[in-house]
Amino acid sequence: MTIAKSFSKKKARSSVGSRKAAWAWSKFWQDDNLSACTADDDTTDGTLLREWKSFFALLNNQASVLDMGTGNGALAAIAVAFAQREGFAFDIHGCDLAGIEPRTYVKSRVKDLVDITFHAETPMESLPFADEVFNAVCGQYALEYSDTTRSVPELMRVLRSGGQLQFLLHSTDGALHLRNKLQWQQAQILLKSSLLPGTRKMLAAVVEGESVSNAATLEEGVQAITGLRKTMDQLAQALSKEADLTLPENVFSAIRRLAPMRHSYELPQLLSLVDDIEERLQAQSARLLAMLDATLDANALQRLSAQFVSLGASHVRTRPALAGSHETRVGYWLTATKL
After folding, report:
1. In angstroms, rounded to a whole number, what is the distance separating the alpha carbons of residues 75 and 286?
2. What is the pTM of this model?
3. Same domain, yes or no, for 28 and 129?
4. Coil, helix or strand for 118?
5. Residue pair 198/231 in contact by the 8 Å Cβ criterion
6. Domain membership of residue 14 as a residue range
7. Which pLDDT tens digit goes with each residue over 250-275?
8. Are residues 159 and 47 in the same domain?
């Protein structure tokens, strides 16, 4: 039975992961983002990429591959590139609980995604595939987000005897965990501040001041601008000593672009853009919290390994995952073979 024929049309059941987290990841994957967690150099020619190439080198022509928690297909795209280089024809499937549409949103990598079959809103705990149809099951920061008491039996069910497993997992002692914790805290500070309400107030005051053009409304506009600048300066000062300012700087940049847009947009449209910034920040906060919750310590990793052994996996191996020229720890590798 082919994978295409074995795909069930039944509606996927809800994951144990929160609906808010699924919504947050869906929002994230609606941008031109191929990957979520890996450093830029490791998506092109880094340590993680070499590890994945070694994994796909274990497979033969016509192999079937399942990428769990695929997102916008970063790992599946690596499998495609490897197969093309070797002259192979892999049958690659990517599933994700989020409402993903990679070929719609990842405009910069459309050619890399055309040979992948994506399954959106598909929980790892209930895979819509027949038994023993894949030669390899893999995931990059994916498996640990699921209820592994249900997802591990599922992936073992769809994997053929002799099939290969490899997962890159979040770790509590990894650099990504520290970054995610920092950015989540920054998101809370921004959301609880007067930044976004002040932005709405500023836009309304400026638009009214320019349309009515009397002393009182002009003064209100000046005060609103001054108040917003003060808020941004205070937030920037409070966050200035932190190691990574990417998140707040992106939010500040988006807000600064709004005022000049008043000449092209009506006030309701400008306020809608502020709503979008707030929604994206809320989604980022929920996504970061989901990553923090998914992170594994050494004991959790040992329990996960034991699950695979109990379900018939052999050669189960775990080791630190290192990335970049400084060999920064970014998680754990878990590899195994199904007996």
Report:
1. 23
2. 0.85
3. yes
4. strand
5. yes
6. 3-172+295-338
7. 999 999 999 999 889 999 999 999 99
8. yes
